[in-house]
Amino acid sequence: MKKILALLLALAMALSLVACANSNTPDPTKDPNAGTQETQKPDDQQPSGDKIDINVIAAEYGQNTKKWWADFQDEFNKTYENINLVVEVVSWNDIYTVVNTRLGSNPPDILNIDVFADYQADDLLLPAKDYVSEETYAKFYEAFLDQSVVDGTVWAIPDLASARAMYYNVDILEAAGVDKVPTTWDELKAACEKIKAYDSSIYPWGIDMTTDEGQAAFAYYIWNNGSDFTDADGNWILNDPKNVEAIEYAVGLVNDGLTNTDPANETRYDLQDLFGAGKLAMVIGPNSIPTYIADNYAKANTPKEEQINYAFAAIPTNGGNPSVSAGVMDRFMCFDNNHSAEKIEAIKTFFDFFYEDNRYSDWVLMEGFLPATSAGGEIVAASDPAMAPWVDIVGSCKFYPTAKAEWADVKQGVINVEQQALLGGNVQELLDNLQAEIAG
Amino acid sequence: MSNSAANTVKKPVSVKKVILRVLLYFVVLDVCVITLYPYFAMLCTALKNRVEIFSGNTILPVTALWSNFIEIWSRAPMARYLLNSVLIAGGSTVIAMLCGIPAAYALARMKFKGQTAFLGFVIVSQMFAPVVLLIGIYQVMQVLGLTDSILGLIFINAAFNQAFTIWLLRGTFIGISAEMEQAATIDGCNRVQAMMRVLLPVAAPGIVTTLIFIFINAWNEYTVALCLISTDTLKPLTVGINTFNGYNMIEWQYLFAASIFAIIPVVILFMCIEKNLVSGLASGGVKG
Amino acid sequence: MSKATAPKAVSTTKKDPYSGKRVLRKVEPYIWIAPSVILMAIFILIPIISVFRMALNNVSKTGQLKGFNNFANFTKILKTPAFAMVLKNTLVWTIVVVVLSTVLGFMLALVLNNKFRGRKIARAIVVFPWATTLVIQASAWGFIINKDYGTLNTLLMKLRIISEPVNWTPTPEAYFGWEIACGIFVTIPFVTFCVLSGLQSIDGSYYEAATVDGATYWQKLFKITLPLVKSSLTVSTVLNIIYVFNSFPIIWTMTKGDPANRTDTLVTYLYKLAFYNGRQGEAAAVSVIGFLILLICASVYMIYTLRKGDGDL
To answer: Which chain B residues in 149-168 lie under 8 Å from chain C, judged by CB atoms?
Structure first.
């Protein structure tokens, strides 16, 4: 008893100590740059009072992103001597952790990430029109801007997009006697069975239902079953009968042994690796897959005859539903850090510089993504014929309902439903529960 | 010194001894093979290209791509990361020892009110995973102006390693008789001198173990460094090599090449310091 | 209470007439522990307090506190069906990893304490798993046991032990098993070196005397070795329990708690809550629950082992 008391006392003692320590520490509202200045390297960034600092946190899309931003930063700082731009590139694995950790005490000025609704809900963001010049604002595809609307205001601007399609290994399909590339779910299942019968060591179909991107699988199947996450009025309809049917179909493919072994743990990385190695016949993947595969072969000097022969097609649908491609769009947003008018001007300058047509198409092409501006689209389509069909696809694809405040919970929720279903759960019940939890 | 040393004194080598010896080597060899296997796999992967990795047909690379090891240097500022890691791990070790040794000494050699409470507090300080404390840590660092600085990481790592330092050293100090220090005090040494000259040399094995422990922990720390450091050139190796874990693919060959490279300094340090572990044994033997 | 303190004060004044020196005596230990206390208070205690604040508040998705919410975070967590499973996983994970790694690590330390050729190299090799970042260690294990391109399957097929790739992780339990194995693998070196440091300060003459007295190996082990390394073994075990309980990278890298929380422990679970679902209040509540569990264990330990020690306070 005495010892527990001792423990509690220790805590209390330490608490009071902290209280003292707290009152002695310098005022946290002082110059927000005090911390960073001290550690800036003397190399090229001289901290100077009259320069306007802009801090950007940007997501790392691939191996070229870091260098691209470093060059961008140099060029920008040379062009605008009164601005000191610092871009921090953070990998996708870690970006949520990094951003959430800092939001409370030291939010960035500009953030490049996929979600925005949570930040908006806490009134942390500025409306897009406040920090983007009219000229630049006019460049974006209307449909893309619509994805960032809450209460009639656009809060974020698109930086790039990617779209998904079905990739298939031409040789495997041919050898297995699949004459026609499947366009419907029935054809898909039949094709999978043929492939399995032809060579059981090849996985016919790839599914990713992991925490990494399980929501994408959910979207592929429900969208191509003529349904959606929400109805036309924006109400969640997660347990819609069509959604239940869609997930049951996908889980059915797994249970019939027509897919990769472990969809709850094999991420899209694993799937594209398998597809690239010729061990997976068909998979829904992003437009960056050709770049990835070509890059592998180039580094390995693989002779042409050993390379896989593949193509892509529309995602199969249920019956007569139109095929829907899933689009993923990322954004820039500007945090409301009580910017001065000068700083807002500097931020506008930043975006004008970034979305300058040639620089922007360079940004998009760098990692094989798709542009979010019409001018960018034209340049990309013209410079890379392989990209041209994708530029068309991205104009018509569906996006996750990321503007809705419940999206984070829905995303985790549908992944959980998929994984429970893989373990033998009843899809209808699971989706009913999720719907009840989300819609209240 | 140890039982085997005692055994060698006896001349006749029995069959039993030989069997034991063989068994010993067998066990050691097994342990080494099992321990090294993941590193063997990592090394082989680091020397392959992606096509070969995912074909899954080969154990050894068809042609060893040593260029992967060179390429990581051009793809990321590895030398810089390495230097940062050394600074962070070294600095944390020094600070943790400077704070921990006096505390452990006080706990082992003095009686004072709140001793138990302090020991309890030390344990309590470990009960939250760093992942949980991230946001709070960041706020503290923000107030102190230590975000994005190596110094901040040094303090954090030193603080997180206090528990081990204090507990292990306290145990070591208690295990050593206080008589010699008392004798030294009578000879005119003050407490600090007595501790430095008499106690610490005898406690060398415990101190070396603690050193290695702190160094390795700080060397491997990932989560806090990730959130605290934003400038690329201030990142430690653990965070820096994450560059190879991209949005569209994980570059296993580079990731593993960089990881193997990151182990080397720790192993070298260990091999250097291991001598002291053994000589500590000698001085430990004197006191009996 | 007052009865106990009064005579004590009297007795000290009697013993030590020089009050200045007496004050110094009294204050001295606190000066010795001060640096450590300050370090931990600033860098660990303040963050811990902010966790408590979050646990008791309604927290917005971006981490803003929106006022005390009457323990709603706790009740919500305790009502979540997955929570019981996560708790069970955490206990299994902690107990199995700590027990097995302590036993194996202790045995390994005994082996490595012998003199033999290549001992130095063997010791250096044993450090390897410890010298590798957990994230990488776990990635490597995940890579090795992968069914489709993992090196374990390739190796066993080349050795003709198996004829076709084996799926090493057919069930969530199998995944959890591998994670536990990985946890044991990386924890063994820690135990081994803690014990080794204890073993090496043992005076060889004890063994010589025991050998002369005709003691067997096991007698020596239990009568001499164990009691003498007890303190370092206790330290390593207690800290291990805490570290393993709070261990994050292995499970996160290998499965992220998938499928459907089957491999989640408290820490990975709360990480998802905080950084994926944006429910930081609930995440903080989970960590407070974890803390209470550890605190109870630690209190039991403190009462048990320190009873005969310094009894004051």
So the answer is: 155-156, 158-160, 162-164, 166-168
How many contacts (CB atoms, under 8 Å) link A and B? 143
Distance, CA of C27 to CA of C25 (rounded, Å): 6
SS3 A155: coil
**C237 near A CB under 8 A:** no
Q: Do C169 and A408 touch (CB under 8 A)?
A: no
Quote the minimal CA–CA distance from C38 to chain A in Å: 8
Residue B117, chain C, CB below 8 Å: the answer is yes
* B62 in contact with chain C, both atoms CB, cutoff 8 A: no
- Domains of chain B, residue spans: 14-65, 75-286
- Residue C262 touches partner A, C-beta closer than 8 Å: yes
> Is the Cβ of B285 closer than 8 Å to some Cβ of chain C?
yes
Sign of the alpha-carbon torsion through A246, A248, A250, A252:
negative
* CB pair distance less than 8 Å for C45 and A18: yes
Distance from CA of B211 to the nearest CA of C (A): 12
> Which chains reach chain C with 3 or more Cβ–Cβ distances below 8 angstroms?
A, B
The class (CATH top level) of B75-286 is mainly alpha
**In this complex, which of A39, A60, A98 lies closest to B234 when CB atoms are compared?**
A39
Q: Over chain C, what HEC string results?
A: CHHHHHHHHHHHHHHCCCHHHHHHHHHHHHHHHHHHHHHHHHHHHHHHHHHHHHHHEEECCCCCEEEECCCHHHHHHHHCHHHHHHHHHHHHHHHHHHHHHHHHHHHHHHHHCCCCCCHHHHHHHHHHHHHCCHHHHHHHHHHHHCCCCCHHHHHHHHCCCCCCCCCCCCCHHHHHHHHHHHHHHHHHHHHHHHHHHHHHCCCHHHHHHHHHCCCCHHHHHHHHHHHHHHHHHHHHHHHHHHHHHCCCHHHHHHCCCCCCCCCCCHHHHHHHHHHHCCCHHHHHHHHHHHHHHHHHHHHHHHHHHCCCCCCCC
User: Looking at the partner chain, which of C33, C46, C140 has a beta carbon nearest the beta carbon of B38?
Assistant: C140
Cβ pair B125, C45 in contact under 8 A? yes
Which residue of B172, B255, B267 is in closest CB contact with C131? B267
C75 interfaces chain B, CB cutoff of 8 Å:
no
Q: Which domains does chain A have, with CATH numbers?
A: 50-162+328-399 (3.40.190.10), 163-326+403-439 (3.40.190.10)
Q: Please name the residues between 223 and 262 in chain B that touch chain C, using a CB distance below 8 Å.
A: 223, 238, 241, 250, 252, 255-256, 259, 262
Q: What is the pLDDT along chain A (440 residues), one digit of tens a residue?
A: 344 334 333 433 443 333 333 333 333 333 334 333 333 333 444 444 678 999 999 998 877 888 899 999 999 999 999 999 999 998 877 888 889 888 878 899 999 998 898 889 888 999 999 999 999 999 998 888 888 999 899 999 999 888 899 999 999 999 999 989 999 999 999 999 999 999 988 999 999 999 888 999 999 999 999 999 999 888 999 999 999 999 999 999 999 999 998 899 888 888 988 999 899 999 999 888 888 888 888 888 888 888 899 999 989 999 888 888 888 889 999 999 889 999 999 999 999 999 998 899 889 888 788 888 888 888 888 887 777 888 777 767 888 998 888 888 899 999 999 999 999 999 999 999 999 988 87
CA–CA separation, C287 and C281 (whole Å): 10
Residues 51-90 of A with CB under 8 A from C: none
In a domain, residue C273? The reply is: no
Terminal Cα distance for chain C, rounded: 11
Query: What's the CATH number where C219 sits?
Result: 1.10.3720.10
Residue C121 lies in a domain: yes
- DSSP-derived 3-state class of residue A166: strand
Residue C256, domain member (yes or no): no
